[in-house]
Each structure stands twice: as C-alpha cells, then as structure tokens.
Amino acid sequence: MILSFGLILLNKSIFERARFPILMTCYHLTLATIMTQILAHASTWLDGRYAVKMDLRLYLKTIVPIGLLYSLSLVCSNLTYLYLSLAFMQMLKGTAPIAVFLALCSLRLIPPTLRILLNLSVIVFGIVLASVGEIKFQMIGFLFQMGGVVFEAYRLALTQKLLGDEKLKMDPLVSLYYFAPCCVAFNFAIGMATEWKDGVEWDALASVGWPTLLLNGIVAMALNFASVLL
Hints:
This protein is mostly helical. It contains 10 helices and no strands. The model has no long low-confidence stretch (mean pLDDT 85).
C-alpha cells in the first residue's frame, strides 16, 4: 500500500509537468525486465524457470495474453492521471474486487454466489453516487480508469490460472521474468505510435529531473515485484 501510494504521488507530480504516461509505463517495465534478468543470472531466485518447459506455442498461449492485459492496465491507469483527481481515482480503484470476482467467474475459476453479488452491488452503488458528486468528473478519465481496472482483473485471473497449473509449476517471480519483456514490447509499440509520434516534451522531461525519475522507477519496480509476489 505504501509503494502504491508513493507511486501515485510521484506519477501525479511528473505528469503535471511532462505528459508521457505510456512511455513512463514502458520505462517502469524495462526496469523490471532488467532486474529479473539480473536475478536470473546472479542469484538462485529464478531457478524455478528451469522447471518450466517454455516454448513459442506455450509463450503465445499463456504469457502474451497476460503481458498484453498488464500493459493495457498500466497504460490506462497512467493516462487517468491526466484527467481525474487523485481522490476520485482511488475511489474508482475500489471497484477492483468487483472486477476480479466477475473475471474469475467469467473464466469459470470460481462459482458465482448471490451473497457476494449483493455485497458487491452495494460497492457499485456507492461509487455511482460518488461519481455523480465529483466536481472534476471527465468521462474519458473515468473510462480509462475503469478500463485499467478491468484489464488488471483479467490479468490477475489469468495469472492465478497460470500459477495454479500443476503442469507448468511456475512461481510468481518466474512469471514476471517471462511477461515483463512482453509488456515492454507492447508498451513500446503503443508509445511510439502515440506519444513519440506526437513529440516528446524534452524540456518538460528535463524539468522533472533525473533524481525524481530514478526514484519513480525504483518505486514502480518494487511495486511490480510486490504485485506478483503477494
């Protein structure tokens, strides 16, 4: 929670001066890729990857969908900073349990129950009321945030399915080792087609300063590791 809150504040501060949320996501995932490669070759933390018989077919079937969903989740979440207040963003993130439950049910990983659906309906009603009273409400920001929540929910559901497969025997850190490079590729392609094409504001980026960017990257990398380990 501390890492998440810290990253939110850092992102908001950076995006107020330099509007490049997609390329920032690419930067975060590049650091995660580099760190997993270092751990794979300089420690025993990722030795579990030797037990995974990964080939191209398996990679395309299991890793690529998770990588795509993770990339879309992070891109949508970062784009939301440009449109909504931090308080409203955090309120909308409260819908995550609902989205995860529905994603698990749609993938038939858990059975739906009426009691849980009723409890989740109360949460939805509260969020609708909050949205009506939000002064800085912007539909585009709302759609980006909810899109990020849905993509993340399905990413978590597919990851649970992947880690629960006894044939693969893949642990959470090994899963990050495989899908982080895939995420970088997706984000790089999206960033080049949008923010890079429109022109990066280098002066604005310089005004942020490398210490802030470095701290932002470290916190994001720690959060990426925490998200797959917890």
